[in-house]
Amino acid sequence: MRTTLTLSDQLAARARRDAQRLHLSFKETINQALALGLDELEKEKRGKPYKTKPVPMGLREGLNYDNIAELLARSESEDYK
User: Fold this and answer.
1) pLDDT band at residue 78 using 50, 70 and 90 as cut-offs
2) Per-residue pLDDT tens for 39-65?
3) Mean pLDDT in the chain?
């Protein structure tokens, strides 16, 4: 795609120096730099992963933790027999 960009003189000079150093065309250098910059913007937008801190809750009295069926039934408010 062809488009027109207006770069500051300092940015254009920096891109030309990098193009020479990397043995790339000016166009390739600008495309790579723009792709890297957009990748970083997307990372910032996503932010840090959400983390929760575990909290010890202990065991409740009166429950039989060896009987999973009973625990599931009680958690779903069903009568267990």
Assistant:
1) low
2) 988 887 777 778 899 998 888 787 778
3) 87
In angstroms, the CA 41 to CA 77 distance is 48
Whether residue 32 contacts residue 18, with contact meaning beta carbons closer than 8 Å, is answered with: no
Write down the domain spans for the chain.
9-46
Alpha carbon dihedral 62, 63, 67, 72, in 10-degree steps, equals 140
DSSP 30-73: HHHHHHHHHHHHHHHHH-SPP--------PPTT--TT-HHHHHH
Cα–Cα distance measured from residue 28 to residue 65, given in angstroms and rounded to the nearest whole number: 64
